[in-house]
């Protein structure tokens, strides 16, 4: 079994579900890297129970290559697993366990690549960034971006190792999350017309969202590289009311906007609120909870050609439907970003998540060739 597989088995044992600490995993990686003479910097959250990790080797004054991935995983509660989710199980040339595909498989390959690169004479630096809380809105990495901009020469390009089956992804939509608090007046349901029903207010908001979605679908920008080629607005959760015979005085609506690079999510949001402004404006308070930018990398730039040279000739270029930290890196470092990593997003976040050993081997070869391209 190769080094990446063995390290992945170790990383899977750490339950780094987003609502838990990732420090045991981070300390494991830090120890491994430092034992091999690699400089490591940690960036902690305010509670000091989670950390980002940055490791660098090579001539730091030069523009190099940044490899990045997140350490957190989604919950397993309520899922029916055939194997223990936090115990790597090898079966049928696959490794099963939470985070194998998303994305500890890539982290294992990247860490092993750093160890191998340490003994080479690099002409450009190689950096590794490991973040936390990506799964809940790309929150954690924001804490280390300022440090990166202050200490790193902007990289030639960044590789985000999310699962793409080792194909090159150049674009994904941005995402903005909102919580609408709809207000009303309590009263007996026998006198319902005398009061403002908060659920009715929420229903008007949902109707506005549907109207905006219909407009985006027929009149908005289109990018045929996506399964859904236009920006979308999605209501994911509604909560309101306490009893059938009470007019509800509160109702919350959680919704998201996933937007193309050509669209401005704030314009989409303004369009939604304009639909309800005349009647319900004083009854709805909308808070932006979280936002991360989309990714849009040109396929004609030198960084993409560089990657194509070290990947198999049949490697495709395309878009992905899920979000990553890539847009944040692109904005902070002003460096090109691509997404390329082992595993299939179709098995991520599900019970019996797995990564094929063949995918890890392909990632190892890719990173070895990438390092060779910056070695003397």
UniProtKB/TrEMBL annotation:
<dbReference type="Pfam" id="PF01546">
    <property type="entry name" value="Peptidase_M20"/>
</dbReference>
<protein>
    <submittedName>
        <fullName>Acetylornithine deacetylase</fullName>
        <ecNumber>3.5.1.16</ecNumber>
    </submittedName>
</protein>
<comment type="similarity">
    <text>Belongs to the peptidase M20A family. ArgE subfamily.</text>
</comment>
<dbReference type="InterPro" id="IPR010169">
    <property type="entry name" value="AcOrn-deacetyl"/>
</dbReference>
<dbReference type="Pfam" id="PF07687">
    <property type="entry name" value="M20_dimer"/>
</dbReference>
<dbReference type="GO" id="GO:0046872">
    <property type="term" value="F:metal ion binding"/>
</dbReference>
<keyword id="KW-0378">Hydrolase</keyword>
<dbReference type="InterPro" id="IPR001261">
    <property type="entry name" value="ArgE/DapE_CS"/>
</dbReference>
<keyword id="KW-0170">Cobalt</keyword>
<dbReference type="GO" id="GO:0008777">
    <property type="term" value="F:acetylornithine deacetylase activity"/>
</dbReference>
<feature type="domain" description="Peptidase M20 dimerisation">
    <location>
        <begin position="171"/>
        <end position="283"/>
    </location>
</feature>
<dbReference type="InterPro" id="IPR002933">
    <property type="entry name" value="Peptidase_M20"/>
</dbReference>
<keyword id="KW-0055">Arginine biosynthesis</keyword>
<dbReference type="GO" id="GO:0006526">
    <property type="term" value="P:L-arginine biosynthetic process"/>
</dbReference>
<dbReference type="InterPro" id="IPR011650">
    <property type="entry name" value="Peptidase_M20_dimer"/>
</dbReference>
<dbReference type="InterPro" id="IPR050072">
    <property type="entry name" value="Peptidase_M20A"/>
</dbReference>
<keyword id="KW-0479">Metal-binding</keyword>
<keyword id="KW-0963">Cytoplasm</keyword>
<keyword id="KW-0862">Zinc</keyword>
<dbReference type="InterPro" id="IPR036264">
    <property type="entry name" value="Bact_exopeptidase_dim_dom"/>
</dbReference>
<keyword id="KW-0028">Amino-acid biosynthesis</keyword>
